[in-house]
Amino acid sequence: MLKNYQEQTNNLEEIKNKWDKRRLFYEGELVKFNHRPGEKFQLQQEIDECKEKIEGIEQKIKLLRQKKLQENTLIWQRLSQEMEYIPFQDKPIEEVFVANKITEPVVTSQWHDSVILWLSKLTQEGSQQEDLEFVTADNAMDRWLRRDRSPKEARALAVFFLEYLAEEPPLKDETVDLVLKTAIKNLNEYDGRTSKPNTQMDKTFHKVMQSCFAQQCHHQLLQGYIQTTGESRRVIGCIFLYEIATNSEVLNTDNANRKLNPLLEQLTTADLVEERVEAGLRLVEEFFHPHIYNIHLRIDFLPNELLHRVIKILFRVIRT
Question: I need a surface site. Which of 62, 73, 86, 190 has the fewest CB within 10 A?
Fold first, then answer.
């Protein structure tokens, strides 16, 4: 494998630029008048030497690029072979559904590690240069995610690419959004069923929420919630709330005003639909979270004034 391609290219470009500046200097001197005998000939020799050096460096850059392009082609061919047949296995969904033997498809660990390795090589190249002849990780993922696949294969691949996002590769925003939208499209009724991540899809979404792509994940889940209905909306909403549930203190009498009043204000006054929907989801989580610890807990533990405000606003929202 050819290493440090961009570093080598940059070094050669710097040397080339120095020779080019030197050539320009001598050419400037050459056009001046009143040269001493032989001086004009010497300047022309210096110019010719500079041109020769520049030509040699350009040839080295060209050869270096050809080698890198060959390497890129080999990586792409290997990845294409891996993607022709995606081996997956049915993994039991733990904790909740063990008795019913419910499973979900996931790629095999050997295939997972192999593809991650080759993808990382494409990612490194893609982050170093903009060259249409090179296949980047963004190019590869765009092609694979847009192909028609069986439901099991599509879900296993969606989970795999979420896991890849969690490793924070240097991908374009468009690629990250495509991965997230594809994963949302492949959610099913077993996702988002518990108060903490349970399926592999739950767990990988949760990992992405802790990564540098958290904001994009937050946005795509919120958009998915707004644009869907029924069971799909419930699942997306539950996954969206994993991040909040993980990082939030439990609602109680002491913190109720501090936690609820900003959400109630956002729910009623925010201009953007996304902001109002997010406030509504966060309110749901605030009231649901205490029930994890006490299923008999009632809403009337709130201070009286706040309780009436909550009920009034929620009824108003329901009517609209």
Answer: 62
Q: Which residue has the higher pLDDT, 108 or 305?
A: 108
The DSSP 8-state label assigned to residue 320 in this structure reads -
Which tokens go with 68? 């890198």
Q: How do residues 66-125 score in pLDDT, each as one tens digit?
A: 888 888 899 999 998 988 888 989 998 876 544 567 889 999 999 999 999 999 888 655
**Within the chain, what is the greatest distance between any pair of CA atoms?**
105
Q: Which DSSP symbol is given to 191?
A: T
In whole angstroms, give the CA distance from residue 110 to residue 2.
25
What DSSP line would sit under 22-52, residue for residue? HHHHHHHHHTSS-PPTTHHHHHHHHHHHHHH
Share of the chain above pLDDT 70, in %: 84
How is residue 205 written in tokens?
């979404």
Q: Say how far apart CA 289 and CA 24 lie, in whole Å.
A: 72
- Look at residue 105 and give its three-state secondary structure: strand
According to the model, what pLDDT value does residue 173 have?
95
Q: What SS3 class is residue 135?
A: coil
Q: What is the pLDDT of residues 200-240, one digit of tens each?
A: 999 999 999 999 999 999 999 999 999 998 889 889 988 98
Residue 230's alpha-carbon distances to 176, 195, 209, 267, in angstroms, are: 26, 19, 24, 21
Closest to 278 measured CA to CA, from 236, 320, 246, 232: 236
Q: Is the dihedral of CA 100, 104, 107, 109 positive or negative?
A: negative
Q: Give the 3-state secondary structure of 164-188.
A: HHHCCCCCCHHHHHHHHHHHHHCCC
If one compares 16 and 3, the residue with the highest pLDDT of the two is 16
Give one word for 34, left, alpha or beta, with left for phi > 0 and alpha for psi -120 to 50.
Answer: left
104 phi and psi angles, rounded to 5 deg: -140, 150
How many residues can be counted in the chain?
320
Residue 3, pLDDT > 70, answer no
What residue segments make up the domains of the chain, in order of their start? 1-84, 87-232, 256-319
User: Which secondary structure element, helix H or strand E, spans residue 103, and what is its range?
Assistant: strand 103-107
